[in-house]
Write a structure and sequence with these properties.
This is Acyl-CoA thioesterase. This protein is of the alpha+beta class. The chain has three helices and five strands, in the order βαββββαα. Bound molecules: coenzyme A (COA).
């Protein structure tokens, strides 16, 4: 399988924040943002693998800034690294100033998707060939994040988390 650049899986979804999607402070409800990010990330993983994909794990979410009612929110997802059957998808969330149009980074998240066949069995996916400095940085750190996720899920033993251990040696 030929490796693919992250730009080939780039997925951008822009939408408004409506009253039914807010919390009592009139900011976007966290679960609504998680769902928007999951949708964009799923499309991104599907573009990379051209397969059915399922969310295996949400590795990291940072709700750094509140997103007020009426905001124009852009969710941008790209596959940052692929392993055998799993893909790490990096999601950046931007809000747009109404008057100037300037974009501010509000949140980010990292999801893991797995490509599966029609019976739900994991299948192999193409590798990622990062291009920009940011893509290379995210690619390099992805194995560490995968090991952390598997460790927290109880799917690997601490002694097998070699990339994580290397951080502390
Ligand atoms: C995700 C799923 C396909 C993994 O199945 P599995 O039997 O654990 O399969 P494997 O052990 O072969 O793992 C498949 C890949 O997922 C990765 N993976 C599994 N759990 C993971 C986790 N918590 N974090 C990161 N990666 C994970 C494995 O490392 C492996 O990656 P690799 O092939 O790239 O090395 C399966 O658990 C599943 O179908 N879950 C439900 C998915 C779903 O319905 N999501 C929506 C929730 S509402």
């Amino acid at each position: 399988m030929t490796a693919k650049a992250p730009k080939e899986s780039r997925t951008i979804m822009t939408d408004l924040v409506l009253p039914s999607e807010t919390n009592p402070l009139n900011n976007l409800f966290g679960g609504e943002l998680l769902a928007r990010m999951d949708r964009a990330a799923a499309i991104s993983a599907r573009r990379h693998s051209r397969r059915i994909v399922v969310t295996a794990s949400v590795n990291h979410v940072a709700f750094n800034s509140a997103v007020p009612l009426g905001s124009v929110v852009t969710v941008e997802a790209k596959v940052s690294r692929a392993f055998r059957t799993s893909m790490e998808v990096f999601i950046d969330v931007w809000i747009e100033d109404r008057e100037s149009g300037a974009r501010t980074k509000a949140n980010e998240a990292i999801y893991t998707f797995v490509a599966v066949d029609e019976t739900g069995r994991p299948v192999a996916v193409p590798e990622v060939a990062p291009e920009s400095d940011l893509e290379k940085e995210r690619f390099a750190a992805a194995l560490r994040r995968k090991q952390l996720s598997l460790l927290l899920a109880g799917k690997i033993k601490p002694q097998d988390a070699t990339e994580l251990k290397a951080l502390f040696i």
